[in-house]
Give the backbone structure.
Amino acid sequence: MTIIWVLLLYIGGLLLIMAEFFVPGAICGFFGGVMVFISATLAYRTYPDYGLFIVVAELAGVLAGIVMGFKILPHTRIGKAMILSAAQPHDEGWVAVKSDMSLLGAEGEVYSPLRPAGKVLVNGERLDAVSTGDLIEAGVKIRIIEVRGSRIVVETVE
């Protein structure tokens, strides 16, 4: 009778661990792990001569289930339905913030010290910017050398 409980707990635990791939949140995985642990403990107490074999076999089964979930599931019909297959390339306009390329090459001055991030004043407008890695004090003249989305990179003007 004990072997039936060991198998039921183990299979139920594996099913809950596999369900974690479909219902994320770690609840199914946690309870599945608890069930596998209880199954291993019960089996170890019932069959102490085979204890090491039972624990190793159950861990191998859990690891095989996890590997199958990560390696095989994405290539199945269900896995493909769950994974976003469309790309959102930059050149087709999929950007969070448009780059203001008119700022490229513009000169201004540092409004707050760039360490390496801070604010600059360009054409009467305060902008967030980063330096090329150097500390730049407030009031120093700068030039914008790169604009990528909302990231503006500046260097000092000599």
About this structure: The longest helix spans residues 51-71. The radius of gyration is 29 Å.
